[in-house]
Amino acid sequence: MRSLLKYLAEYKKETVLAPLFKLLEVVFELTVPLVMARLIDVGILGHREDVILQMGGLLALLGFAGFVSAITAQFFAARAAVGFAANVRMALFHKIQGFSFSQLDSIGTKTLTTRLTSDVNLAQNGVNMVLRLILRSPFVIAGATIMAFSVDVRAAFIFVAVIPLLSLIVFLIMRGTGPLYKQAQGRLDEVLMHTRENLIGARVIRAFNREEAESREFDEVNGALTRTQRVTGAIAGLLNPLTQVVVNIGIIVLIATGAARVDSGALTQGQVVALLNYMSQILIELVKFANLIVTISRAMASADRISQVLAEPDPEDDGEKNIASDAQEDVPAVCFDHVSLRYTGAGAEALHDIDFSARAGETVGIIGGTGSGKSSLVHLIPRFYNATEGAVRVFGDDVRTLRSQSLRQAIGMVFQKVELFAGTIRENLSFGKASGEDSGEQGVSAADRAVIEEALAASQAAEFVGEKPGGAEYVLAQGARNLSGGQRQRLSIARALMRRPRILILDDAASALDFATDLKLRTAIRGLSGSMTIFIVSQRVPSVRFCDRILVLDKGHLVGQGTHEELLESCEVYKEIYSSQFMEDASQEAVS
Length: 592
What we know:
The protein is of the alpha/beta class. The chain has helices spanning 12-44, 49-97, 101-107, 109-133, 136-151, 153-200, 202-207, 211-237, 239-263, 269-310, 374-379, 404-409, 425-429, 446-458, 462-467, 485-497, 515-526, 541-544, 564-570, 572-581, 583-591; strands at residues 334-341, 351-358, 363-368, 389-394, 397-398, 411-414, 423-424, 475-476, 503-507, 533-538, 549-554, 557-562.
């Protein structure tokens, strides 16, 4: 939790004023029993109406002053807590944005989502409660005890016996619930993961009639969370009754002692009432303090989880060089120099000894079976992952020496899984602009419209976009659910073309397109610029057949490279892929 206190730095005034006003409220509350004692002993028993009116007015004034102080303290505490949560959430978001793909893979989406939402909210509640009660409750307990000694020393020793016992109960409850709250948050991660997977994969689950099986799995993880929360709640639930029992026993002893001392004339009735009021204040504050301890325990567990994410090491140092603006003719656009890749925690290499180079303006096809390492290979070019052996060079420079921003500005990437965001088509395409800025509809220049139209035309998306209401201003739902799979793929390709990249990577980006549209797409992209280096990843032979060069991958090894005709003669893996897709054509070519 200490590592998160820096996010309260800009709320120093609020963190000081909130406890101060709470202490002021406590002063008013501790004064009330003394006023009540005088009201009873002098006003009521002495039949003095002037004292009754004076003490009654003073009680009303103390109540109003305490109310104003409480509201003011709550305002400052809420302001500081909400600001703290906003700062922590922003820091978490920026930290996650800077994570490497390896870190995102190892930490997981489910736990990052929980820590950005539930854990931050619990930490916010903890800060709010601390600012309001961390000083108030101990001050009331200590103040009530001191005031009780000022009324009667003998009776006040009852307070001295009760308070340590109550403190022991609070400590044991806190010690027992702390680890359980942390465990419960971990169980919540699992519930969130299953919920997310079921929502995203609802069509697949229904297609394979897996609703009952998924429900059983969800019941198991939800049951584990429920059991953990029940145990935690059962332990935390002992807090209030145990403190109530101890304090009420103290009150009984206090009344019995007070009655005997009133009979002997050592105490007045008003003083006994004051002592009872102080004991009641202690009871109320200990209940509040107990609940505060529970809240702090949960907040501390959540704060530890947040700190774990913020303490993640930054990705490897970014390079210092910008990518070369003008490519030299004798320098390859992309060069893999005996590159190997092993993912974190993986038992085997995903890629082994990959060695090839691609010239500027060349179109390179990458083909292979599922799990052969095609996506892993192209992910090394923009340095989403770092090669474990060898070097990846772009325009002659090792990608590890280049600034990531400069490198990725030169690359247009279309992922295998299409991701579009809620908003207009134009706003989604603007993600591909080199500046990363979008000034809104009124700020769209004629040049921007021309670039959008060119990108839509090249990606074969112009036709269906033109049919949508508003054209490029058509609003997409979250994840572009109101578009078909092929339409989403074409828009993602248009987004990559918006920046007119020097290197374009299409990672199985046309899998949902028919062969005719796929052919038009590849022809249009190659006609955009003769200097653009294009990588086409696909499992379909027609998608890579006419590339200048085809790389064939098998289990992470580069088993062949060359043109379509060369590979049919020299590469068994390529011939098998071709034969499986074109049995009749393959047999005819074999006969000829």
